[in-house]
C-alpha cells in the first residue's frame, strides 16, 4: 500500500494525491525434484486519483501475473522455465520487473539457464504482457524480445562481469519521417561491479544500440558509473557515493538516423533520482549522496542530483515521452537539479515501511520551454509479507 502526492506534473501547475494498493497471492508446487510450478495472482488498484481512466501501470484488477513450469534440478547445471514469468537482470536498468510499479511487468516466453560454478548464462525470448483492467491480460501485439545475459565471476578478484545481448523486434512502427516499418534494435553491453580495499566499491554499465527503425539507422549509447566508500563504522556503516549516468539523444528528426537511446524494459525507481521524473534518453545525470544505517531497523539516505540534455537540439523525456524541446538548441542544456531524502523502517522481518521526498528545481532549459513549475513528490509505502 502506498500514498503518493505530487505537484508540478510536466512542470505545470498540476498535481494529484492518491492511494495505491496491491495484493499478490503465490502458489508453488514441487511435482518432482526436477519439475516445479509457480503461480501468482495479482490485484492492483488505485483510489482517489484524478486521472480517468487510471494508467495501466497503476490499475489491473485480479489477474494472472505469473504462471510457469520449471524443469531441472535446483542445484543442477541447467534449468528451463516456460510460461508467464518475470525477468530481472543486473540493476534492472534495461530489463526488470519494476517492483515500484503497482502492476509490474511479466513476459510470456521461455528462459534457459546454464551455470557452472560462478559462471552463468540466461537465454530467453518472449513477448511482454500488456495490462488490461477490463479483461485477462494478453501479450503485446507485434512485439518480440530475445536476449542472452551472462555472469562471469572470479575473472577479477571481488568482481563480477555481466555481458549481454538484447534483441527487440516490433512491427508497424513509424520512423522520423512518418514511414511505416519494423523496429529491429540490438543492444550490446556489459555490467561490471566489484569491491576494492579500504571500503571502496564500484560499478559500471555500458550499452550500445544498432539496427533499424522503420528504415532509419539506429546508433545510440548509454552508460552508468558509480563509486562508493563505506566508512569503518560497523554499527552505522555510512556510505558516500558519486554517480554519473548518460544516454544519447537525437538532434535531427529528419536525417534518417535514430540516435535516441532506447531503455527497453527497465525498473526506473530511484535510478535517476527518487522523483522518477526522467527517462534514460538524451540525458546527462550526476548524483552524490549518503546512505546511513541508524539502527538494524532504520536506514536513511539523502542525495543531490543535477540534469542536463545530452543533445541540446533534442528534448527532455518524462515517462518515455518528450515534453519539451528546443529545435535550434537555443534554450540551453541544463534541465535542473533535485534533492532527495528517504528512510526505510523494518519493524519485523516481514514488514517494511519506507517514505521519501524529492524536490526538483527547473533549470534554464525548462525555464525557456515550459511553465517551469517546480516538481515535488512525497510518498509513504508499506509492504507486508505473510
Explain how this protein is built:
- 28% of the residues are buried.
- The two termini are 14 Å apart.
- This protein is mainly beta.
- It has one helix at residues 364-369; strands at 2-7, 15-32, 35-47, 60-71, 78-85, 107-116, 119-130, 138-139, 143-153, 159-174, 180-196, 200-213, 216-230, 239-247, 257-258, 283-293, 298-308, 315-318, 321-325, 334-348, 351-362, 375-384.
- It has 1 helix and 22 strands.
- It has one domain: Porin (Beta Barrel).
- It is 2% helix and 60% strand.
How many domains in all? 1
Largest sheet: 18 strands, antiparallel, barrel
- Determine the structural class based on helices, strands and strand pairing: mainly beta
Principal-axes geometry comes out as globular
Taking pLDDT < 50 over at least 5 consecutive residues as the criterion, the unreliable ranges are none
Quick overview:
By secondary structure, this protein is an all-beta fold. The protein has one helix spanning 364-369, and strands at residues 2-7, 15-32, 35-47, 60-71, 78-85, 107-116, 119-130, 138-139, 143-153, 159-174, 180-196, 200-213, 216-230, 239-247, 257-258, 283-293, 298-308, 315-318, 321-325, 334-348, 351-362, 375-384.
List the helices and strands and how they pair.
Layout: E1 2-7, E2 15-32, E3 35-47, E4 60-71, E5 78-85, E6 107-116, E7 119-130, E8 138-139, E9 143-153, E10 159-174, E11 180-196, E12 200-213, E13 216-230, E14 239-247, E15 257-258, E16 283-293, E17 298-308, E18 315-318, E19 321-325, E20 334-348, E21 351-362, H1 364-369, E22 375-384
Amino acid at each position: 500500500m502506498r500514498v503518493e502526492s505530487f505537484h508540478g506534473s510536466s512542470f505545470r501547475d498540476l498535481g494529484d494525491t492518491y492511494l495505491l494498493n496491491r495484493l499478490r497471492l503465490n502458489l508453488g508446487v514441487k511435482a518432482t525434484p526436477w519439475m516445479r510450478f509457480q503461480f501468482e495472482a495479482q490485484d492492483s488498484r488505485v483510489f482517489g486519483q484524478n486521472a480517468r481512466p487510471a494508467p495501466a501501470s497503476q490499475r489491473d484488477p485480479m489477474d494472472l501475473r505469473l504462471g510457469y513450469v520449471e524443469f531441472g534440478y535446483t542445484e543442477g547445471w541447467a534449468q528451463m522455465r516456460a510460461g508467464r514469468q518475470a525477468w530481472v537482470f543486473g540493476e534492472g536498468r534495461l530489463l526488470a520487473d519494476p517492483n515500484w510499479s503497482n502492476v509490474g511487468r511479466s513476459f510470456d516466453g521461455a528462459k534457459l539457464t546454464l551455470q557452472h560454478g560462478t559462471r552463468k548464462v540466461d537465454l530467453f525470448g518472449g513477448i511482454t504482457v500488456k495490462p488490461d483492467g477490463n479483461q485477462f491480460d494478453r501479450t503485446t501485439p507485434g512485439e518480440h524480445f530475445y536476449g542472452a545475459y551472462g555472469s562471469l565471476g572470479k575473472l577479477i578478484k571481488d568482481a563480477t562481469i555481466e555481458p549481454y545481448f538484447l534483441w527487440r523486434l516490433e512491427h508497424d512502427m513509424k520512423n522520423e519521417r512518418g514511414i511505416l516499418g519494423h523496429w529491429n534494435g540490438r543492444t550490446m553491453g556489459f555490467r561490471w561491479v566489484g569491491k576494492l580495499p579500504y571500503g571502496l566499491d564500484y560499478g559500471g554499465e555500458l550499452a550500445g544500440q544498432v539496427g533499424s527503425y522503420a528504415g532509419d539507422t539506429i546508433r545510440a549509447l548509454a552508460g552508468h558509473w558509480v563509486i562508493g566508500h563505506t566508512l569503518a563504522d560497523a554499527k552505522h556503516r555510512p556510505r558516500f557515493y558519486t554517480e554519473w549516468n548518460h544516454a544519447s539523444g537525437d538532434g535531427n528528426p529528419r536525417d534518417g538516423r535514430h540516435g535516441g537511446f532506447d531503455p527497453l524494459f527497465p525498473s526506473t525507481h530511484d535510478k535517476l533520482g527518487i522523483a522518477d521524473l526522467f527517462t534514460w534518453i538524451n540525458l546527462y545525470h550526476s548524483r552524490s549522496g549518503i546512505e546511513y544505517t541508524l539502527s538494524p531497523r532504520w536506514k536513511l539516505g539523502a542525495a543531490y542530483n543535477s540534469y542536463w540534455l545530452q543533445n541540446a537540439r533534442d528534448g527532455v523525456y518524462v515517462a518515455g515521452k518528450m515534453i519539451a524541446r528546443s529545435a535550434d538548441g537555443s534554450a540551453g542544456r541544463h534541465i535542473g537539479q533535485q534533492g532527495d531524502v528517504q528512510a526505510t523502517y523494518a519493524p519485523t522481518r516481514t514488514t517494511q515501511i519506507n517514505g521519501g521526498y524529492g524536490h526538483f528545481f527547473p533549470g534554464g532549459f525548462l525555464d525557456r520551454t515550459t511553465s517551469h513549475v517546480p516538481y515535488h513528490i512525497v510518498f509513504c509505502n508499506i509492504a507486508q509479507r505473510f
